[in-house]
Amino acid sequence: MQRRNRAAHTAANTMTRMRRHLIGGLVALTLGGCAGAALGGCGSQTKTVTVAGAPAVTQSTATSTHTATATTPTTTSTAPAPTTTVGGAGAPSATHTASEPAIAQPEAHSEAEGLDEAVAVLKARGYTPNETSQYHSNQTLRVLVGTRAGSSDGYNQQAFFFVGSRYIGTDAKEPSATVKVVSQSDTEVTLGYPLYRQGDPLASPSGGQATVRFQLNDGKLTPLNPIPPASSATGLSRN
Predict the structure, then answer these.
(1) How many CB atoms within 10 Å of residue 232?
(2) Is residue 94 part of a domain?
(3) Structural domain contains residue 145
């Protein structure tokens, strides 16, 4: 009797376990079907994640495609290039050439340029200019003859030399009775001295005329001929 009850109890437990397994299988099957259905419903959309640095991959989906295009405005600034015309031909517009300074042309010198300063030099040394037209401001070497102030007869003369407007000296240490400019150029001046014999009056020199060329050399004035003496008891002289 006890054996039958034990067998019946074991059979009942076995049936209970079988029913539990069957119910668990049905539940799992049902959940799996729902999950598959959910996955099937979501499969129509695709989400693309792009990682920085990886090459871009374009995927097309059946639902919709969204394309964003960024447009960067382009600004073009064109400055007109200067055009230089030389000899009637236009220079390339892409080349900018700075205009070079114009060459200064020699200015015309007026006869009065430096003359006032020269006259002031003579007056400061007690002389009055004879002929201001002899002063040539367009020359490097310039000359102006003057007579000692206070001379009642117009004698006692000297030649004053200038380099440009700078005074450099006289023809001789002592004045002559008279002296005149015979000729002159840019760096040379020729002076003429009437020559006297002993006893000649100042108005009547009998010894002719001596010409002396003065030349500017390295900034120094040099007589190229002998200068007659200021006075002489036996020979010819400037007085």
Answers:
(1) 16
(2) no
(3) yes
What is the chain's pLDDT, residue by residue, as a tens digit (239 residues)? Answer: 455 555 555 656 666 666 666 666 554 555 554 444 443 443 444 444 444 444 444 444 434 444 444 444 444 445 444 444 444 444 444 444 333 333 333 334 444 569 999 999 999 999 999 999 999 999 999 999 999 998 888 999 999 999 998 999 999 999 999 999 999 999 999 999 999 999 999 999 999 999 999 999 988 999 999 999 999 999 999 99
Domain extent at residue 176: 115-223
DSSP lists the bridge partners of residue 208 as none
Question: Is 110 among the domain residues?
Answer: no
Our count of domains for the chain comes to 1
Among candidate residues 201, 160, 199, 198, the one with its CA nearest the CA of residue 177: 201
Residue 212's contacts (CB-CB under 8 Å, 6 or more residues apart) are 171, 190, 191, 193, 223, 224, 225, 226, 227
User: Is 74 inside a domain boundary?
Assistant: no
- The reply to whether the predicted model has a pTM over 0.90 is no
